[in-house]
Design brief:
Elements: H1 4-10, E1 19-31, E2 34-44, E3 47-52, E4 66-71, E5 74-85, E6 91-96, E7 115-117, H2 120-133, E8 139-143, E9 146-155, E10 160-170, E11 176-184, E12 187-198, E13 202-206, E14 211-215, E15 222-223, E16 231-237, E17 242-246, E18 249-253, E19 256-261, E20 273-281, E21 285-299, E22 304-312, H3 318-330, E23 334-335, H4 342-353, H5 365-380, E24 386-393, E25 396-407, E26 410-418, H6 425-431, H7 434-441, E27 445-451, H8 455-467, E28 474-485, E29 500-502, H9 506-519, H10 522-527, H11 537-543, E30 550-559, E31 562-572, E32 584-589, H12 598-615, E33 620-626, E34 638-649, H13 650-683
Parallel strand pairs: 26-27, 32-33
Antiparallel strand pairs: 1-2, 1-4, 2-3, 3-6, 4-5, 5-6, 7-14, 8-9, 8-11, 9-10, 10-13, 11-12, 12-13, 12-14, 15-18, 16-17, 16-20, 18-19, 19-22, 20-21, 21-22, 23-24, 24-25, 25-26, 27-34, 28-33, 28-34, 29-30, 30-31, 31-32
């Protein structure tokens, strides 16, 4: 019978198996500035073993120093930590890879992802919800290098929380200041605390009046055992001539995949690159990309090591298939794959949900045909410029949201439609998926157009924006929105010769762009791409290969060579949005009009813009007029709605999800608390 100590060692996370290579691999070691040839003979997660030829040692001891190991396509930074002379005179040295100490995810004041919650009602509700959830929501205490986990049991009248200690992960925890964090409503929370009491089983800590929170949902890993997918992972490194294959997947996210190393075959050196990573998913197919070793850690529940692999792919259709797979696994009630039959289903949803109230039914006839072609182009383009989110029930689509890249740094969520009789919380569920998509796309901003009269947005969206405490990270601007049918509508605007209208040359445009920088907030100016791509030419070139187009031009109004007005004329593929938010004209009248009535400048720019779009064979155009304009319905334009355009940094969309997650999550928990109280009374 083996000694019990051996059994303990086999499960000790500090004991990492070393693997011998089937044959030594030639590589190069930087030894005190000299590059010398060595052979790699074995490896583990934390280091590798090297043979140094005898002619380089000359029977002298090797100096244990920091160094690096050079491979054809990769370099390992590390340190020589031991030496051992073999029988044939060759010296084996140990090359240790640096350890990355795990750090707590602490509040960063200048990080726009974070939000400070200081409303006392909200703060206390969070603590109460935390206690109610109890064993579902462990709290983590960090103090110096110590980490402890406990489950909340009750709140005291003195403003403290008492909990049951579950696990002391590392170091020592004692009385005094500490950080406490927890995850609730899919949101990470953090607050400073003081530990009042602690023993082997119980802990009491102070509750803080402020809580910092950040959405971590977009990076949450999906555990394989929670989803029915059959996944096989194949890792290949050509230089080392090694291939590993396993179906023992532990979890995965957009950024990587973890494999349970039951037989301890994968203690690969950290940062080891793989020339090819193949993820084979049943009913999805093969997804091929590249990766490298990120981590190797002991998992208590699995009683095995887990290999963490950073995985990425930038080749279509693998990129889209991988992203869709992750999203589908994380949000099983959602669907991200658009098929031909979905065109009619989505339009049925639009009709039944009241989404088509913006204009007369006959005005959607042409765009309905356009969408059948354009939506297929968007699907074929992959997830680099477009993403469609759907909720299905039987053979119907009951919820829909589309996200598209409409400016170089900016994506726009639109076509949010919810079926009649469906819970309104589905809208929040759909919008909550925007942050991970924006993160994956690399977008810097999100832009949204909303009907100012929409009750759902007034209740949820605008209440968040107005109370948001970082005005430099988002901006609201109001418009009066009109539509013109260029074939059938005839504008009766009066001709006038009080202003000169023309397309500016590149020198005149410099003055226009300078004014735009003053007119718009910094975040709007950057998000709308006026600096990096003022004519949207680069963006057009990047999407033209998919059959899509994008463009922007300008008409300037002058009085005696003084700029008094600007028309910004944007175009895009017809059918991306059924309302026409890409074929849109923004009319700006400068503050100094040199005694010309604003209405005359505005009307002249509208008339000229009307002719511009007509020459481009456009059919329906949107005109966005800033507040204080004339009523142009009497001149032949059709009023659609009062519109609010919101531009926010990508991180702000995460904060909005935090906001709605709490609002709905707390409401649901409150109902659950009431039901529990009623049930407890019945049992008494």
């Amino acid at each position: 019978m083996d000694h019990p100590f051996l059994e303990i060692l086999s499960g000790d996370k500090r004991k990492i198996k070393r693997i011998d290579l089937p044959r030594p691999v030639d590589t190069t070691l930087n030894y005190l500035g000299e590059m010398i040839p060595v052979k790699m003979v074995d490896f583990s997660f934390s280091g590798v073993g090297l043979y140094v030829p005898v002619e380089y040692t000359k029977n002298e001891k090797i100096i244990l120093t920091e160094s690096h190991l050079q491979f054809p396509q990769h370099k390992f930074e590390g340190q020589l930590v031991y030496q051992q002379r073999k029988d044939d005179g060759i010296i084996q040295v140990g090359f240790s890879l640096p350890i990355n100490l795990k750090q707590s995810y602490l509040f960063k004041k200048n990080d726009p992802s974070w939000e400070i919650v200081d409303d006392q009602e909200v703060v206390m509700n969070l603590y109460k919800d935390l206690v109610f959830k109890s064993y579902e929501c462990p709290l983590f205490i960090t103090q110096n290098n110590g980490i402890l986990t406990f489950f909340p049991e009750k709140m005291t009248d003195s403003g403290a929380i008492i909990g049951e200690i579950y696990e002391k992960k590392q170091g020592e925890i004692g009385m005094g200041p500490a950080y406490c964090c927890f995850t609730l409503f899919q949101t990470y929370h953090l607050f400073r605390t003081d530990i009042f009491k602690i023993d082997d089983t119980k802990i009491e800590i102070k509750l803080a009046p402020k809580i910092q929170r950040v959405l971590r949902r977009e990076t949450n890993r999906v555990k394989k055992k929670e989803r029915p997918y059959e996944v096989l992972v194949r890792l290949k490194n050509n230089y080392l001539d090694i291939t590993f294959e396993s179906d023992q997947v532990f979890d995965y996210s957009e950024h990587g995949i973890s494999i349970i190393d039951i037989e301890e075959k994968f203690p690969l050196p950290k940062n080891l690159a793989f020339d090819e990573v193949t993820v084979e998913i049943k009913d999805v197919g093969e997804i091929i990309g590249k990766g490298y070793v990120k981590n190797y850690f002991w998992n208590k529940q699995e009683k095995a090591f887990v290999l963490g692999v950073q995985f990425s792919t930038n080749i279509e259709p693998h990129t889209t298939n991988w992203h869709n797979f992750i999203l589908k696994a994380r949000y099983p009630q959602m669907d991200f794959k658009y098929i031909e039959n979905d065109h009619s289903r989505i339009w049925n949803l639009f009709e039944h949900s009241g989404y088509l109230h913006f204009k007369k039914e006959e005005r959607f006839e042409k765009v309905r045909n356009d969408t059948e072609i354009t939506w297929r182009m968007l699907e074929d383009s992959g997830s680099a410029i477009s993403k469609r989110i759907m909720m299905r029930k039987d053979d119907e689509i009951i919820g829909h949201l589309q996200l598209d890249k409409i400016y170089p740094k900016t994506w726009c969520p639109h076509h949010l439609a919810i079926g009649s009789g469906v819970k309104s919380t589905i809208a929040q569920d759909l919008l909550s998926i925007a942050p991970p998509i924006l993160v994956k796309s690399g977008a810097d901003y999100m832009l949204n157009f909303t009907d100012a009269s929409n009750q759902w947005f007034q209740k949820n969206y605008f209440s968040f924006v107005r109370s948001y405490k970082n005005p430099n990270a988002n901006f609201l601007r109001s418009y009066v929105t009109y539509e013109v049918d260029l074939e059938n509508d005839h504008l009766s605007l009066e001709e006038n010769d009080k202003v000169e209208l023309k397309y500016p040359n590149k020198y005149e445009f410099k003055a226009i762009n300078k004014y735009l920088k003053m007119h718009y907030s910094p975040i709007e100016y950057d998000a709308l791409g006026f600096d990096v791509d003022p004519y949207l030419k680069n963006m057009h070139d990047s999407i033209e290969k998919f059959g899509l187009d994008r463009g922007r031009e300008y008409i300037a109004a002058y009085k005696d060579n003084n700029l008094v007005g600007i028309s910004i004329l944007e175009t895009g593929s017809e059918g991306i949005n059924i309302i026409g938010i890409l074929d849109v004209c923004y009319i700006i009248v400068l503050e100094n009009t040199f005694n010309i009535p604003r209405e005359i400048i505005q009307s002249a720019l509208i008339s000229k813009s009307f002719a511009h779009y007509k020459n481009k064979n456009k059919r329906y155009m949107i005109f966005q007029l800033e507040e204080g304009c004339l009523d142009y319905t009497k001149y032949g334009m059709t009023f659609m709605c009062d519109t609010t355009r919101w531009v926010g940094m990508r991180e702000v969309s995460s904060k909005f999800v935090c906001f709605t997650n709490y609002a709905y999550g707390h409401l649901f928990l409150k109902r659950e608390m009431i039901r529990k109280k009623i049930s407890d009374k019945k049992q008494e």
